[in-house]
Amino acid sequence: MRSIRPLFTAGRAKGARRRTSPVLATVALASALALTATACESGDADADAQASATAASEGDGKITIPDNIKDRLKEHGIDIDEWKDGAWKDWSKDDWLREAEDYINPIIAGLWDPDRMREAEEPDQEVDDSDLDGDQGVTDPEPAPVDAKAVSPTYHDSVPEAGKVFFDSPEGQMVCSATVVQDPANPGKSNMVWTAGHCVHAGKSGGWYRNIAFVPSYNDKGLSTAELEGVSREEVAPYGVWWSDWAQTSDQWIEQGGTTGGDGASYDFSVLHVTPEEGGTGKSLEETVGSALPVDFKAPAATKIQSMTATGYPAAAPFDGQTLYQCQDKPGRLSLNASEPTMYRIGCTMTGGSSGGGWVATGSDGKPALVSNTSIGPVTAGWLAGPRLGEVAKGVYDSVSEKFAGQ
Prior knowledge:
Elements: E1 4-9, E2 24-28, E3 30-31, E4 34-35, H1 43-56, H2 67-74, H3 80-84, H4 114-119, E5 122-124, E6 149-150, H5 155-158, E7 162-169, E8 172-181, E9 192-195, E10 210-216, H6 225-228, H7 233-236, E11 242-250, H8 251-256, E12 270-276, H9 285-289, E13 308-312, E14 325-329, E15 332-334, E16 343-348, E17 358-362, E18 368-373, E19 376-378, E20 382-386, H10 391-403
Antiparallel strand pairs: 1-5, 1-19, 2-11, 3-4, 6-14, 7-8, 7-10, 8-9, 9-12, 10-11, 11-12, 13-14, 13-17, 15-16, 16-20, 17-18
């Protein structure tokens, strides 16, 4: 088998992988410049986080963080002011939080400026999923490459749910692709985003990435790299910058995910809950962009799907990460480990940076739905693979939805 790499882009390098056990990993993130408590803490912590988020969005834009929130950060050896002044760049093993309940993501206003977004690179990723109805251990012939087609700007007109996830890793600033998805607990008002697990956590080799933010309809007008130099933030992020105040991925990814070889790829997915960097109008992400995709956890097997469309912002050569692309193909099956679910695979020339981008097909109810996300591909580009979403993925999704029910 050819070597396999993950598909995200970093400032200088690539890397991040998957795991195997079915346990879910949950993480509480900071709400609007204020941090929540960890996923295992009580509802009081959530109330504190909401209060701090409200405070952050009022007045002159200065951030007000309650002392009890600061105290929780100090338990991890983190001073919020030092963190925002650059302490987050310390990736020493002792300070690189790994466990699910350790995740923190305080908002640093203005960090993701147009230059930083433009220079972010793609992070590589892998897959480790099997078909859920008898395809386990089955791999179909490698598909013929399908040339990725550029989406006509403005991207929001045809793919309003698509966008980019930016984050920092030890290798530098990185970027993945992502999709706005529906929230069953908050119909019509979702703040949930679907991406790959390797876009939020380094897997078995590390911990949670930092400064995770989502930009819907990035570079909506399709400006070239040269044209993007010197533009305003509003031109590259027309619907704002949304910071993740909660992130969750599979425990399998955290335990097994790797930068190469496909480890954990079958469970390489993640759900983010986001909040606007600046208070905004009070509208949800779904209301802001005008759409959100349903997620189908009972999608047909690969052999029963006639067509599947993958969307993303490929950033590794020959692409530059500034343009939205799509590939459409009939999926086949890819098995990296006979004991794990078989993955979907399609022909596609998209490269790193497309990781985490949504795969859409006709779902079990006959309507378009997100059924997978880009996880891995070969070093020599030509195909992509993504996990088939099942009970573990649904557990991650439902947990995030329930966490923010009624908010």
